[in-house]
Amino acid sequence: MKNKILRKILESRLYLENDGIFIQDKESISFYEINKKEQYAMDKVIQSTKIVSSNQLKVYFDEYSEKKIIDKNISIIEIINLKDNSLAIDCGCGEGGYLKVLSKKFDLVIAIDLSLEAILYAKKTNKSLDNIIYINGSMLDFYNIFDEPIADFCLSAEVIEHVPSPNLYLENIYSLLKQDGLLLISTPCQNLYFYPFQFFSMILTKPKTLIRLLNPLENWEFALNWHPAMSKKSFLKLLTKHGLEVNYYQNFVPYYFDKFPIVYYIANILPIKYSLGFYKVFLESYNSLIEKISFGIRQHALVRKN
């Protein structure tokens, strides 16, 4: 299976191989000027991962949301039942945080990202895995290579809010998925605009912006500057519109980016051996409450191709 996929990639002439990575010619990338901004943003993310802070409390705070999203998505991946010779595509793999679990679960994994820095980092940190094909390119073009669906599973973790066209993106994923193939997709949830401190800040300073952001599918190009956040209703409607049946949905992670000044201040003045534990208990308890009342700022869904 791996050789067949590699042959198709090479025959497409969209990519040049360099040290085990297939790199798409920039002139062939759809929406290149828009995509370039997202590529540079991911480059900065990768560069920042190399900077290690000595403040454990700050590190935990900064990484909490990302780790919670990864943990939630992995918990779904691990319970998926698969056939032999299964193939997964990590659509926008970023730093490669899912590649170990995907490599273990699937016979072959294709990791694709617009950022070359991301692909290089993912390959370096997962060098022991021998069933991954690394592609530096756009998901909006990748499906063109194949005459028939190839994927049993696609992962889109915090990606759709970065693409120039959500409809084209989902059409491409649909084309790549086999019949009954699964897509696990996570993205920001519109709840984030309705936390009091966020809502009143925007309604007082940027009311017109807020109105447009509350209708992201009608204002997608504008909303890209903020990373579009869909409501549960519009998110699930978008998925079903593209022939994807929703099997599971959840939203999670509270809006905590202001650090909850009082709680964060208390954690900072506590002895080091207590401060991190105190803040962990606080955020985990808060997240549990948010999940129960469905008021999280992230959402994910597991959907099946009809």
Describe the structure using short key phrases.
Rossmann fold, alpha/beta, 13 helices, 306 residues, 20% strand
Description:
By secondary structure, the protein is of the alpha/beta class. It has one domain (2-190, 226-305): 3-Layer(aba) Sandwich (Rossmann fold). Helix content is 47%, strand content 20%. The chain has 13 helices and nine strands. It has a nine-stranded mixed beta sheet with strand order 1-2-5-4-3-6-7-9-8, sandwiched between helices. Helix 2 (32-48) packs across helix 5 (116-125) and helix 8 packs across helix 9. The radius of gyration is 20 Å and the shape is globular. The relative contact order is 0.13.
What is the number of E strands?
A: 9
What order do the SSEs take from the amino end to the carboxyl end, as H and E? HEEHHEHEHEHEHEHHHHEHHE
Helix content: 40-55%
Spatial order of the strands forming the largest sheet: 1-2-5-4-3-6-7-9-8
Structural class: alpha/beta
In brief, what are we looking at here?
The chain has 306 residues and is an alpha/beta fold.
